[in-house]
Design goal:
single chain; five-stranded mixed β-sheet; 15 strands
């Protein structure tokens, strides 16, 4: 599976996106035919010696044209629009997507009915199966838009809008907040990874488990740094306890910070700001405002390089 992310309405990869693309082309062609027809009639009327007959214009432009062309476009558009899939919470996979300034909180319903499986800035779904998205916002109005898979749906505080999403082929699809929501609106991206159903189920089962890390001295030092530097005051890593408060780490949803439990398995960091690798991660921790000015994460410019590298190694190990 390629990690190249598609974000194009001209390359639909789902049933809803295919309908929207077809509608767009038909309306564009119909509009072009209408424009060219009017221009031809105008040119004929301006020819020397041609006598303008008002009745012809009234019958042609006022009756025949809307009756045939515009009515055909209206009927076709209505017919295809009602074929767009209706949101249904009965789909086997249910995902809550919550917009924050400027990242995405993703919650999967646990297959066994237990506590939600939480991650951030990345959705995974099984190829060929419709999934239900419950879209809402924790602060301002956002808008969910994955051009290759479906249309746009607004995310409004205090309300939940439903949406059905389906990918017909495996791949990585880029989504983007489509409603201006503040300084970093343009860098509020989301990646949707469509994978075969068996791979998706294996991934979901892994996400439901607490974090496990590779055993190495550097990773262990990074794990301690995560707690000592109070990263756990904002970010959750399931399986890591914070001795400073003697309780499990604070839930990210309560303080508007991404859950990092399986952070190392994600393709990008900072809601699509950069590819997720150790070098970018260390630079992000040191000063995230370089890559994403205004992001609500403080810089750690006073952290010594060895601790910074260890912390990046620890987060990278959270598969």
């Amino acid at each position: 599976m390629s990690n190249f992310a598609q974000q194009s309405v001209l390359h639909p990869a789902g049933p809803d996106a295919a309908i929207i693309t077809q509608l767009s082309w038909i309306l564009f062609i119909g509009g072009t035919v209408l424009f060219v027809g009017v221009m031809v009639l105008c040119a004929l009327s301006l020819r020397r010696g041609e006598k303008i007959r008002p009745m012809y214009w009234l019958l042609g432009g006022g009756v025949l044209l809307p009756l045939v062309l515009l009515s055909a476009l209206l009927v076709f558009g209505t017919w295809r629009t009602v074929q767009l899939s209706q949101p249904s919470s009965q789909h086997a996979v249910k995902i809550a997507v919550i917009g924050h300034m400027w990242w995405w909180e993703i919650r999967y319903s646990h297959p066994d009915g237990r506590e939600d499986i939480v991650l951030a800035n990345e959705i995974r779904l099984p190829v060929g199966q419709p999934v239900y998205l419950g879209l809402s916002s924790a602060d301002v109005i956002h808008s969910f838009w994955a051009p290759s898979l479906a249309g746009k749906v607004d995310m409004i505080p205090g309300r939940v809008h439903g949406m059905t999403l389906q990918a017909d082929r495996a791949g990585v699809y880029r989504a983007q907040c489509a409603e201006y929501c503040g300084e970093q609106h343009a860098r509020m991206a989301l990646h949707i990874v469509a994978q075969p159903p068996d791979q998706f189920q294996a991934w979901l089962a892994a996400q439901a488990r607490p974090a496990s890390t590779a055993a190495s001295a550097q990773v262990e030092r990074g794990r301690r740094a995560f707690v000592e530097q109070r990263c756990s005051a904002c970010h959750t890593v399931r399986g890591v306890d914070d001795p400073a408060v003697a309780v499990p780490t604070v839930q990210a949803a309560q303080i508007n910070a991404p859950d990092l439990t399986h952070f190392g398995s994600r393709l990008y960091l900072g809601a699509g700001a950069q590819p997720n690798n150790r070098a970018n991660l260390a630079a992000w921790i040191a000063n995230p405002h370089v890559a994403k000015p205004g992001v609500r994460m403080p810089a750690s410019t006073d952290m010594d390089p060895a601790t910074l590298t260890a912390l990046a190694a620890y987060l990278e190990s959270l598969k």
